[in-house]
Amino acid sequence: MSLPKTLAEDVARNLVMVARLIDEDPEQAYAYARIALRLASRVAAVREAAGFAAYATQKYAEALAEFRASRRMTGSVDLWPVMADCERGLGRPERAMAMAGEPEVQKLDKAGQVEMRLVAAGARRDMGQIDAAIVTLQSPELASSSVQPWTPRLRYAYADALLEAGREDEAREWFAKALEADKDGSTDASDRLAELDGVEFVDVEDDAEEDVEVVETLDDDDDDDDDEAEGPAKA
Distance between CA 12 and CA 15 in Å, rounded? Predict the structure, then answer.
């Protein structure tokens, strides 16, 4: 659907702000998405952006409605995994699992299929099926030594599931593999490894403040000593 030039520019500006803020300030991104939605609700890209903004603020019912609207407009299956994850967010993991078995999954590209696998494993964990979650994550993508954009999250999810199952040694191995692949710091694999190794991080700023307090206390004591020394002399 085409929009008049001025309106299209207004919509584009709002969508740019959504993309810019969605990670650091999702509530503000959501506000911009609502403006774009009021301006152009019949544009699929607007509905999709509104869906992601709602998803980022955990408004899962609203996000799902927007994703469905976008899918109806485009016929694309790209949003299938995040739609399934919305079902999880709404407390309906069984629906997410049902979606994981639908024909739409076969139409996804490799990244989409991995994302769907992550959602399905999460749904299994929601239902208390930790062993099934582990099996769900076991795949050629997980075993591959090739690092792809999804590799850190896939390895991390597998490690986390192993840890929940009490398989700590294996979990540590996979957290290490996740960290090795995670060049952008998209996971907290390093922190999880440190926890498993019993490493405690000390806040340097807090230590510095404590040192300052100790120095100030010592200075005060020195001043008191000086006063005591000078007192008798003045008398």
Answer: 5
